[in-house]
Amino acid sequence: MAGHAVKHDYHLVDPSPWPFVGSVGAFLLAVGAVGNMKGLVGADHPLAWAYGDGSWGGLLIGFAVILYTMFGWWGDVIKESRRGDHTPVVDLHLRYGMIMFIASEVMFFVAWFWVFFEYALFPEVRLDPALATFPPAGVETFDPWHIPLMNTLILLLSGTTVTWAHHALQHGDRRGATLGLIFTVVLGVCFTALQVYEYSEAHFAFSMADGGNLYGSAFFMATGFHGAHVVIGTIFLAVCLLRLLAGQFTPEKHFGLEAAAWYWHFVDVVWLFLFAFVYVTFG
Amino acid sequence: MSADAATHDDHTPSMWDWRRWVLSTNHKDIGTMYLVFAIFAGIIGGALSGMMRLELMEPGLQFFTGDETFWGSVFGNEHNYNVATTMHGLIMIFFMVMPAMIGGFGNWFVPLMIGAPDMAFPRMNNISFWLLPASFVLALMSMFVPGAGGDMGFGGGWVLYPPLATSGHNGPAMDLLILSLHIAGISSILGAINFITTIFNMRAPGMTLHKMPLFVWSVLVTVFLLLLSMPVLAGALTMLLTDRNFGTAFFDPAGGGDPVMYQHLFWFFGHPEVYILILPGFGIISHIVSTFSKKPVFGYLGMAYAMVAIGFIGFIVWAHHMYTVGMPVDLKAYFIAATMVIAVPTGIKIFSWIATMWGGSIEFRTPMMWAIGFIFLFTVGGVTGVVLANAGVDQSLHDTYYVVAHFHYVLSLGAVFAIFAGWYYWFEKIFGVKYNSILARLQFLFFFVGANVIFFPQHFLGLQGMPRRYVDYPDGFAFWNEISTYGYFIMLVGMVLFFLVLIDAMIRRRKADANPWGEGATTLEWTLSSPPPFHQFNELPKIK
């Protein structure tokens, strides 16, 4: 078909270094993590700073490469979008992609809820009688109607402010959109801060080394992964705020913001399940 | 039309230009890299199985002796035998079958068959590939760092059950393996997102879902299984990681945890995973049977929705892998019933392939021989699967060589035969050169005989009670084990023939036809040159 002009609206992406660089980053991060946790070289090895037991060097290198990839890759996506590569059909690709990504995230949380429900609903099969109730004897759980309720209200409110920002943008009200996004990011930060505070007040341990048991494991990993997603969502929204201020969003075309909002609502819904079951029903 | 797309001209970069591969955003180049990667991983995975078959040729310890002899220093000790079984399984699943089927053939032919210029996310496509070598190197590294005590590598089986995967292997080998699978999982999830978007969004004008080629249907179902099952494995692996390193009690009864919980999470992923391995093969076989019978596939819609049904039911049968953990009888009854139901859509597929051939003007070209071999062998594996679905029978067959024989009939003889069928069906399209079909048929012959000689006796061993994953066995099992190892040597000849076919084709470079198969080959890839242009379908085809 040499010489034929391209007669479709798909985006044939230019060759890109980021997939390869990102994969190298993932590899370095994994090796660094194992070095940190178990030590891949002895304490007197020249690479002990990176891959010795308890070292952080290898982890940080891998993380830096991944961060660099994220900046480079998504920076390219933004450039391509502004160049006009994101035709309506490509825009639809991105929407499908984001929905599928969120679907896979939902399944990730299924694993954590599954474990939690297994332990919460069938405590009588535990071998140790002290652990044969749920929550196990001696575990003093959080009162759901204090900080967790506060956090629920914060996240629900942030869901409305992000919708406010979206609708304001659609109506060409940039000031409203900016304000709405600022509120959302601030509420996200508040949630994380309250969650950190709550963790510091916990009367049950995460690790068995500190006298913890399955309750602490299931509680901290489920809420912890949610918290990590809140942080990621907050960063996503903050980037959208910067892009909004830079004038990159138009009332018609602002899928970055919509994707961030979808992600934020997903994080919100996960929290509602955590609140309803981990804090209220089995708290 | 975007300004950028217009700057893509049609000249194909040199294949010696490293940037063409490392920086690739071209679905065909990425598909080729996947195929090369799968061959490479297959050699390593196959070598590991050779080590096992050599050891099991006779009772007693011959090779995994762990002493100062030559074999002892190369093979290691009994622990390393378990490492070999573990890594053979993981490598063949994650680094051979999946990359070949989904990454290789999926990348090459899903866009071609639906009339699309490329995948929906060409750049993300490349990270799906490049994460695999990263993951593979981590897995290989794990074999050479301490696993249990002073022994190298993880030897707890590909299922990674605790407590062997937690307190049983305290060294970094298992942590490397966990992170290796995390990365392979990310690769799969990104690939799944890419395929779903491509198939839903980039079909040529007029190609409705109900006109879509069956291979595309099979990949669509497969990637949905990947998208929904891989994250659950990620969760289970993360729990293993935190149990090992951060003191959580998910699978540790001392803290109230439950090792059986891991098995539920694992098999919720693991059972869809076995359909992930075989479904693309179903798609490939449908095309080949139809092409060489010169008839459309019998019951096209039934074939498509049978795969959807297999995919759906595949999510609700997982505990049939765990009949012996002590689950309630009612629960077993449910899982037996649900498992047996899968035989219905699978039967639809088998009978529809036979009905496709029925009355057709059949040509026994190379891919057709592999496809018929597939249908026969997969059926054998399916029938033993129905046997194993019975919890009562499984009570005595669980973890015996009967199970090993069963899943190798559906995978080593099912999925792998489907891969070779696809390889010889699309070889000319991919590489643009013809292959020597006599050598290729000879390879089929050696594979068919060899694989059957390896695995059919393992049914007998299993029924006699020989357990899996042991380096040694009582003398009573010696005869069929020796036969089984002879089968490996036969298959090895087939493997050598495979490389001879490849080398011969690459040296002689006989220019391939656009469509070597004639009127039976009706899908869109045969309307393009062999190999297709670097960017095909600049003007989208219209489907009537």
Largest sheet of chain A: none
Mean pLDDT of chain A: 95
Counting helices, strands and paired strands, the structural category of chain A is mainly alpha
Silhouette of chain B: globular
What integer value in Å does the Rg of chain A equal? 23 Å
Query: Helical proportion of chain B?
Result: 55-70%
- Number of helical stretches of at least 4 residues of chain B: 16
Strand content of chain B: under 5%
Into which percent range does the helicity of residues of chain A fall?
55-70%
| Cα Rg of chain B | 23 Å
* Sequence stretches where pLDDT stays below 50 over 5 or more residues of chain A: none
User: Strand tally of chain A, please?
Assistant: 0
Strands of the widest sheet of chain B, in order across it, are 1-2
Shape of chain A: globular
**N/C terminus separation of chain A:** 66 Å
Report the structural category of chain B.
mainly alpha
- Number of DSSP strand runs of chain B: 2
Biggest interface reads: A-B, 80 and 91 residues
Parts with pLDDT < 50 across at least 5 consecutive residues of chain B = 1-9
Strand content of chain A: under 5%
- Major pleated sheet of chain B: 2 strands, antiparallel
Blueprint (SSEs and pairs):
The complex is a heterodimer of chains A (283) and B (544).
Chain A (H helix, E strand, L loop, with lengths): L17 H21 L9 H4 L5 H27 L4 H34 L25 H24 L3 H27 L13 H32 L9 H27 L2
Helix pairs in contact in A: 1-3, 4-7, 4-8, 5-6, 5-8, 6-7, 7-8
Chain B lengths: L2 H4 L11 H5 L4 H30 L13 H6 L2 H37 L7 H21 L3 E3 L2 E2 L19 H30 L12 H32 L13 H35 L6 H14 L15 H29 L8 H24 L1 H7 L3 H31 L5 H28 L13 H31 L36
Antiparallel strand pairs in B: 1-2
Helix pairs in contact in B: 3-5, 3-6, 3-16, 5-6, 5-7, 5-8, 5-9, 5-14, 6-7, 7-8, 8-9, 8-10, 9-11, 9-12, 9-14, 10-11, 11-12, 12-14, 12-15, 14-15, 15-16
